[in-house]
């Protein structure tokens, strides 16, 4: 049985996958917390590369890794830095724009993470990206993000925003699904960049940036469809 590794986004925990778990019965599921998050041991420096290295150490060989947001970016690095470790990759609304204008908008935000108002920028970003659904759950998620230790969150978030993912996506050598729920990611351009990547577009459901919480059935369909591929 193919192991399924679940990696949450920055400031988030694996409990956010709870609405998926009933539909993943019978699968070999391995939730992995990001370093310094939700009781996981911290790193001396939580750079994107260091976080990906730590997560990679916890991934069983032959796994499919499904990562939400920053967890997807981490998964991309795991796939590229450790060829042969993963058998597939599912990117849940990960911040991986590939067109020039969208990439410029993303990288321009990295400087704010180094500034004195970074925590307010973080909160505004997360509230805006949540979408219109389940405001009480939004407050729970945002509170958890803001409670995450700065040393575990801030450098990782900065590196994700500063990253140009195009070279990594070109190098990707495993079948990959990009599940778009809110991001400014051009699925056609992504597939043109690497034919191993195919897109699943959930934006018509208006799930916001956490589709595994707001539209778990749609995310489960995408996951099970991907896992069923030969």
Automatic annotation (TrEMBL):
Pfam families: Abhydrolase_6. This is Pimeloyl-ACP methyl ester carboxylesterase. It comes from Kineococcus rhizosphaerae. InterPro entries: AB_hydrolase_1, AB_hydrolase_fold. GO terms for molecular function: catalytic activity. Signal peptide: none annotated. Transmembrane segments: none annotated. It comes from the Bacteria. Residues 4-222 form the AB hydrolase-1 domain. SUPFAM superfamilies: alpha/beta-Hydrolases.
């Amino acid at each position: 049985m193919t192991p399924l590794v679940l990696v949450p986004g920055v400031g988030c925990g694996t409990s956010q996958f709870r609405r998926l778990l009933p539909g993943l019965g019978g699968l070999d599921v391995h939730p992995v917390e990001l370093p310094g998050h939700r009781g996981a041991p911290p790193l001396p420096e939580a750079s994107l590369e260091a976080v990906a290295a730590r997560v990679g150490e916890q991934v069983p060989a032959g796994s499919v890794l499904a990562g939400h947001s920053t967890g997807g970016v981490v998964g991309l690095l795991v796939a590229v830095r450790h060829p042969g470790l993963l058998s597939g990759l599912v990117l849940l609304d990960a911040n991986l724009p590939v067109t020039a204008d969208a990439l410029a908008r993303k990288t321009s935000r990295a400087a704010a993470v180094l500034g004195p108002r970074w925590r307010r920028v973080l909160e505004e970003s997360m509230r805006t990206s949540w979408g219109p659904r389940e405001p009480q759950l939004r407050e729970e998620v945002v509170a958890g993000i803001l409670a995450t230790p700065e040393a575990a969150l801030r450098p990782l978030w900065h590196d994700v925003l500063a990253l140009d993912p195009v070279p990594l996506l070109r190098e990707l050598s495993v079948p990959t699904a990009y599940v778009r729920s809110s991001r400014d990611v051009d699925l056609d351009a992504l597939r043109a960049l690497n034919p191993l990547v195919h897109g699943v577009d959930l934006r018509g459901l208006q799930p916001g940036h956490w589709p595994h919480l707001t539209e778990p059935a749609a995310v489960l369909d995408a996951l099970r469809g991907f896992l069923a591929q030969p």
